[in-house]
Amino acid sequence: MKKTIYLIFLFVIFLSSELHSKPVEVQAIVSTALLPVKSDVMDDPAIWVNKKNPSKSLILTTNKDSGNGGLYVYTLEGQLKKMIPVGPLNNVDYRTGFSYKTHEVDIVVASHPQKKKLSFFAMNPQLDTLTFVGFSTNSFQEAPYGLCLLKKDMNFYAIVTFKGGGAEKWQFWEKEGKFHMKKVTTYPVKTQAEGCTANDLSGKVFIAEEDKGIWAFNEDGSFEIVANVGENELAADLEGLTLYDGKYLIVSSQGNSTYGVFSSEKPYDYLGNFKITASLTQEGTEETDGIDVTSANLGGNFSKGLFVAHDNRTSKGGGSNFKLVPLESIAKKLELN
After folding, report:
1. Which of 290, 326, 282 has its CA nearest to residue 34?
2. pLDDT at 7 over 50
3. What is residue 6's three-state secondary structure?
4. What is the structure's pLDDT at 201?
5. Which domain holds residue 174?
6. Which of 91, 100, 107, 175 is most buried (CB neighbours < 10 A)?
7. Is 214 inside a domain boundary?
8. CA-CA distance, 135 to 116, in Å (whole number)?
């Protein structure tokens, strides 16, 4: 009897492992327009939600090419709407309600490795106009690599990672048209990290150390590992990170071109992974860098939210772009509430 129970137990463990080892498959329904440069120059997206007219929301993306670098803005139909040529940018994020020259804007920030600074853009939420408004007055000792923003108690912070290792938290503000920064925290990240995301409610910051795992840093200074590379179908490099409704943490597992999903609170349960595969009209994704997600109702096929992923198509000679996936298809297949 004991042997039978033991065998049943092993079978359940095996079955559970098999269910998680094969990613569920979803498909993109929109791709952003390809650029003439046939190499992997695109990197990171941020979904700007147009609260006044959600169907006119935009995908803000970075181009890290030394000759054509800047912020590229796409519609939900994948069309290039605007390009702001400020030089090569790596990661981008935004937050609402930033005070700029006495009025309120959505502040967009991107890392500029060439200048070793942050670049700032102001989105007027009433006019839907995006403008470059300057670089940080401060310079970093090393070139900034990854970036995400945190808004806590009306204070704004940029979490910056560096290619050679290390990560820092900087508070930033505008005064007389200039963007000032002050370092407030250094995170104990030893090796190369890029992807990061932050929870504005809890103040918790997640950072992906590419060859090691995902870290969670709490406001009180404590920290813990969320997941290790080599476990839960995570394969180096770990790249983009994003939060879905503050409850779910999604990571780009670049080494196997999948996306892992975890609970954003302890014990950081692993909830499965998914892969963006080809359909009759759209390619799948491979070697994804940046990702972003929103559960906002953007209308049409994205009425229950949107997931955006970078796609490195260089191996096919096609350059790189971004794929747009209805969030509903991911949530249903992974049974996310």
Report:
1. 282
2. no
3. helix
4. 96
5. 26-333
6. 91
7. yes
8. 10
Query: Beta partners for 185?
Result: 169
251 lies in some domain: yes
Average pLDDT over every residue of 228-238? 96
| pLDDT, tens digit, 9 for 90 and up, residues 107-132 | 999 999 999 999 999 999 888 899 99
For 116-149, give the secondary structure using H, E and C. Answer: CEEEEEEEECCCCEEEEEEEECCCCCCCEEEEEE
CATH number of 278's domain: 2.120.10.30
Sheet harboring 155-162: ordered strands across?
144-152, 155-162, 167-175, 178-187
Instruction: Return the CA Rg of the chain.
Output: 20
**Residue 169, H or E segment:** strand 167-175
pTM: 0.93
The pair of structure tokens assigned to 258 is 């999948």
What mean pLDDT do residues 155-171 have? 95
Neighbours of 270 (CB within 10 A): 17
Q: Which of 26, 19, 51 is nearest to 250 (CA)?
A: 26
Position 3 pLDDT exceeds 70: no
d(CA 218, CA 203): 7
Amino acid at 111: S
On whether residue 329 sits in a domain, the answer given is yes
Q: In the chain, how long is the greatest CA-to-CA distance?
A: 78
How far apart CA 179 and CA 181 sit, in angstroms, is 7
**Counted domains in the chain:** 1
Instruction: Note whether residue 211 is domain-resident.
Output: yes
